[in-house]
Amino acid sequence: METTIVALATPPGAGGIAVVRLSGAESYRIAAQVFRPINESKKVMEAKGYTALFGHFIAQDKILDEGVALFFRAPRSYTGEDVIELSCHGGMVIAQALIEACIDAGAVPAGPGEYTKRAFLNGRLSLTQAEAVMDLISATGRQGAVLAETALDGALARKIEHYKQLLVELAGHLAAWVDFPEEDVPELQQDNLCQTLDEVLAGMQQLIDRYGAGAVLRQGVDVAIVGSPNVGKSTLLNLLAGFDRAIVTPIAGTTRDVVEQAVMLGGIRMNLFDTAGLRETGDVVEAEGIRRSRRKLEEAGLVLAVFDGSCESKQEDRELAQACAEKPAIALVNKSDLEQKFDDTVLQGCFSKVVKIAAGQGEGMQELEQAVQEVLGVANFDPTAPCLVSQRQLAAAVAARSALKEAKNAQSAGFGLDAVSVCVDDALAALCELVGENPSETVIEEVFSEFCVGK
Ligand code: GDP
């Protein structure tokens, strides 16, 4: 960590201001070369932490722009090092020139997530909190952001610490009993043992159950809109998008490629994919569109299968319903404003929810919203409760759950407390891994490689 890093901390592109951030032991020296305070009695090298100076940014001896430098002295900064934030005017040209001037003065470009990695290595953040920072940046909805904030606040780490304490006490007791039988250590009450294992197991199960819904709130979900031609798929997409995104005509086979549009529904970011109507066709372009529709149906996190309520159900409706049976899928029986001829029984057993709508009239959207929330498990989701925020954490929680189940099996099968003790140790190791205690170099690399540059 001897290097001093520099990167743009704000998103690239046009904007009111752009912030270029320096972090490392040389930050002050480098800033003194690229920033000159307007008030000549002020010196960059002497600027105290948590202060700001107004001045000119200098590149190749010329004034580039005017702006503000914000100073943070180690260890009271995001990274724990000397940090200086240089706020110049927005737009890429000035910020880029300023970054180049910093590099000329000795800074090196920061890698992905390097600021947060330094914060972690300097003990400013735990690994779970660092993962939460990434989540907060990429959160797509307000609930997702609350969720990431909860993790950033350390709620997950505190919860896991509680479970670790319980297991440490148990492991200590078991080890004493197993290793020093002659010392007259009182045998553990079976009830106490069971209670502790059950409590931690239930906690793990709850975290694992909440993971999917949390991921939906944080990252959104891919939603495939599928159905026969002319049932109203594009009308639904346009209604949810709030504008005419897809072409709507009474001519079957109008949508030939997959049309993508992100919308918010019930606090969830949904990446909608309006697909070509599923039907037999001799048209090669339409056939390729239909192949893509089927693939989207397989890949999506949620399927909205649209049926025409004003038509009698056909064999292809039955086939579509069967194709949805294994997926999180909602059946939308559209055109409820017309006389209904559709036989709902073809949908039975294939969908978690069946909702009647009239996309053309915008009717049934509240019911649709509620159905989406229920099927994705976010209906009664408390975003302020602890939640796992990465695949890495999920894998560790699953490992802890398996070890705890084995401990319970070993106990009930009467294998003896030494067998239970080994499983409890394994569960404890998985919990330590979950909160990122003593992580390996590979784990650290993996976590931070997913960050963007500048964070
Ligand atoms: P797609 O081929 O499945 O994408 O279907 P479209 O969205 O292009 O709609 C096909 C036809 O059905 C168009 O003429 C729409 O105006 C009409 N339509 C869509 N939704 C409704 C509805 O709720 N009620 C009625 N009466 N017509 C609808």
Helical segment count: 14
Q: What is the count of β-strands?
A: 13
Ions, cofactors, ligands: which are bound? Answer: guanosine-5'-diphosphate
Structural class: alpha/beta
Helix content: 40-55%
Instruction: Choose one word for the global shape.
Output: flat
Sheet with most strands = 7 strands, mixed
Low-confidence stretches: none
Describe the structure.
The protein is an alpha/beta fold and 455 residues long. It is 44% helix and 18% strand. The protein has helices at 27-34, 92-104, 114-121, 127-138, 142-152, 155-179, 190-219, 233-241, 284-299, 315-324, 365-375, 391-412, 417-434, 441-449, and strands at residues 5-8, 17-23, 35-37, 51-59, 62-72, 83-89, 108-109, 221-227, 259-265, 268-274, 302-308, 329-334, 353-356. The strands form 2 sheets. A 7-stranded mixed β-sheet has the order 3-4-5-6-2-1-7. Strand 9 and strand 10 (268-274) form a beta hairpin. Helix 4 runs antiparallel to helix 5. Residues 227, 229-235, 248-250, 254-255, 277, 334-335, 337-338, 358-361 line the site of guanosine-5'-diphosphate.
Which secondary structure elements does this structure contain, and how are they paired or packed?
Layout: E1 5-8, E2 17-23, H1 27-34, E3 35-37, E4 51-59, E5 62-72, E6 83-89, H2 92-104, E7 108-109, H3 114-121, H4 127-138, H5 142-152, H6 155-179, H7 190-219, E8 221-227, H8 233-241, E9 259-265, E10 268-274, H9 284-299, E11 302-308, H10 315-324, E12 329-334, E13 353-356, H11 365-375, H12 391-412, H13 417-434, H14 441-449
Parallel strand pairs: 1-7, 8-10, 8-11, 11-12, 12-13
Antiparallel strand pairs: 1-2, 2-6, 3-4, 4-5, 5-6, 9-10
Bound molecules: guanosine-5'-diphosphate.
